[in-house]
Write a structure and sequence with these properties.
This protein has 280 residues and is α/β, with parallel strands linked by helices. The chain has a domain at 27-46 and 71-84. 30% of the residues lie in helices and 20% in strands. The longest helix has 18 residues, at 187-204.
Length: 280
């Protein structure tokens, strides 16, 4: 039911758009080394993310995935190298777990609206009325409009994840970073969640960087993979069809075709030359 409603909502916004590597990048990592106390956890990471690209960050538990995200967001200082996000690029972040107490008596529509203006003001009800169309459209995009007046505590785990996503995208970011957004979901719900992320990415030309633990649910949706493994000092980054053939990737996840029935897209870039950033 969710997939059907979601498809109808997104069809109103027009056909899917392919990633456009000719547009200004929204994030660039140049020889970035991440870690703590001056000690690097990973080899240097270099990549460039463009609008419409869905980057999936993979690796074992404790491999440095979350540390990499926090460094890209500016929450941690890099050991060396640079992170570049243009000043004109708005960024939203969806953490693995919300800091909101879902037992708090807040409605879905109020929680999502906080993404428009998180500062308290007696004018907030008027501001939300002004942005009501945007708010309802965002709820439709994540298939939560029927639940808009429900208290958060009545939502399922999957619905809570979608509420967090709606709150993140309502401000119309150009770059969305998500840390294991499906970790608490079952396989079916996880697949639906990544279908949603893929469609939002395409329709909004939104660049996404998503940390996942399991590959199965997202394999066919990713445009790019970033494999990190601190224990074995492995970093592999690039277009999904190329990274899927890399020996380190195959060693972790086996052999599969991330784009069945599709020809390779030579216009897809993972860095300024379009090659694979490989430290294995």
């Amino acid at each position: 039911m969710m997939a059907t409603n979601l498809t109808k909502s997104l069809e109103q916004k027009g056909p899917l758009s392919a990633p456009n590597p000719q547009r200004q990048p929204v994030l660039k990592l140049d020889q970035l080394r991440v870690g703590y106390g001056g000690r690097a956890l990973l080899p240097p990471v270099s990549l460039t993310i463009h609008p419409g690209e869905l980057w999936v960050v993979l690796g074992p538990n404790g491999s440095g995935k979350s540390t990499l995200l926090k460094t890209a967001l500016g929450l941690l200082s890099p050991v060396s190298g640079t992170v570049f996000i243009p000043q004109t690029v708005p960024v939203s972040f969806v953490p693995q777990r919300s800091h909101i107490d879902f037992s708090f008596p807040m409605r879905v529509i109020d929680y999502v609206a906080d993404g428009l203006d998180r500062s308290w003001s007696f004018l907030n009800p008027l501001l939300r009325l002004k942005h009501r169309d945007t708010l309802l459209q965002t709820l439709r995009e994540v298939d939560l409009e029927p639940e808009k007046y429900k208290p958060l505590r009545q939502l399922s785990e999957g619905q809570r994840q979608r509420a967090m996503l709606a709150r993140a995208i309502i401000s119309n970011p150009s770059l969305l970073i998500l840390d294991e957004p499906t970790s608490a979901l079952d396989i079916r719900s996880e697949r639906s969640a990544f279908e949603l992320l893929h469609n939002l990415c395409c329709h909004r030309q939104l660049a996404m960087m998503v940390v996942v633990h399991h590959l199965h649910a997202v394999a066919q949706k990713a445009t790019h993979f970033l494999l990190v493994d601190g224990d074995h000092q492995v970093v592999v980054a690039g277009a999904s069809e190329h990274v899927a053939r890399n020996a380190s990737f195959v060693g972790h996840y086996g052999v599969f075709d991330p784009c069945p029935g599709q020809e390779e897209n030579d216009d897809t870039h993972s860095d300024e030359t379009g090659g694979i950033n490989n430290h294995a």
